[in-house]
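Intended use. Records like the one below are meant for learning the mapping from a protein sequence to its folded structure. Do not use them to infer anything beyond what is encoded.
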Amino acid sequence: MARIGDAAPSRRVFVELREIGKHFGGVQALDGVSVTVEQGSVHAVIGENGAGKSTLGKILAGSLQPDAGEIVIDGEAVSFRSPREALASGIAAIAQELLVVPRLSVAENVFLGAEPRRAGWVRRGALRQRFDALAGEAGFTLPPDRPAGSLRTAEQQQIEILRALARDARLIVMDEPSGALSEPDTVRLHEIIRSLTQVGKSVLLVSHFLREVLELADTVTVLRDGKLVHTKPAAEETEATLIQAMLGRPLDAAFPAKPAHRPDAPLALSVRELSAPGVNRVSLEVREGEIVGLAGLIGSGRSELARAVFGADRRRDGEVELAGGRLPSAPMVSLRHGLAMIPESRKDQGLLLGRSVLENVTLSRLTDFSRLGVVNRRSERAAASQVLDRVAVKGGDYAAPVAALSGGNQQKVLFARMLLCGPRVLIADEPTRGVDVGAKRAIYDLLVGLAKDGMGVLLISSEVEEILGLAHRVLVMRRGRIVAELHGEEMTESAILGAAFSETANEPRAA
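Structure written out for the chain above:
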């Protein structure tokens, strides 16, 4: 493999996807899509959730087979029936859900299935030598003997990149690679992607982060409803043109107008001197019709605070009051009294992916639709349909598994479940993570609409623009404590980041 810093080879066509079509039941996921990927380039594929971009990447990587069209590599038509066959042709994939074997070492994961062996036994010395050489060429500093499961997400991602390079992959499909990464890890990933193209590797980048696409990509393909909108050089695009191409219309404003709010509105939620794992004596208030933004770096204690307030994590000290009544530390009690929560991870903490849309919506209020253990399906469906219509979930088959929905619609199902509980206060932890720009705007409109109806909202987000665009007030957390409260003109990106990053002498840490 050429070393980083060597002159990049001249561009030539490496892969062509010609008139690719794919059905899932009665749904046309891809309809005559053609894409050309050049050697040594980053080719981004974007679109709303459900546009077909991940399906296209899976077809190229051999995880799915197309119903129509063909794949051409180096001028020859190929047909992949598995990822192994795609890898044999130089194409590897790094999925959103990373595939490492937690108990195996880093080196064993990198060469999994391709270990140097003698008489059936793995040659440990040769394995280590190969790993050191490969990691050195790529510029990675991963610990070869550490269990892969003990590493951070960004490091596990590097394991998968090394695994692809160990098999001499010439094109790597990366599906939402920065979705779960911190800002420093994202910067490092971008450096890695650039270094790959410098040595002639190609990257098919599936991403909903438009800034990332414009920063990294040489070429951008836009999909909408399974069809090709256009393919253009990234240098000719802006965020506005990409959004218009994805949606078929301009997005007039990133955020809706903030609802009017009276500072003297009745108190909806009061937290006093709350301590819990990762939280140190936090006090805050949310009033009716108010959106309070909770900002801070990853690890600052934002999600820990949300879970402790809701009762999902045990509180060590302090009080939580809802409309004047004290809440014990129990999620079902919180829901019954009007405190609801959208968790940080819909897949790990929110949804039962194998169960139906209907079951996921009514999960928290199932006793309302049952008698003597028997569920009245008619009343259950009527109640669920009402809240699903309110949050505008696309797709009327509520008996289908929720896993079949796009990320944006899955998130809306969580909102529908919470609305069915009739909350007075909603804690929304990263409510737009992993959704496209169209679904983001729909969720923003929903949050603003709830506040207009008098609901108090505690909004947690890693996106400072999102906090500033929606919140009436901003609380900034660091090391498990609230270190700043910003109002009005004080609410700026620099003020939030300054409070999140600044250090003071002898600042206490959360236990």
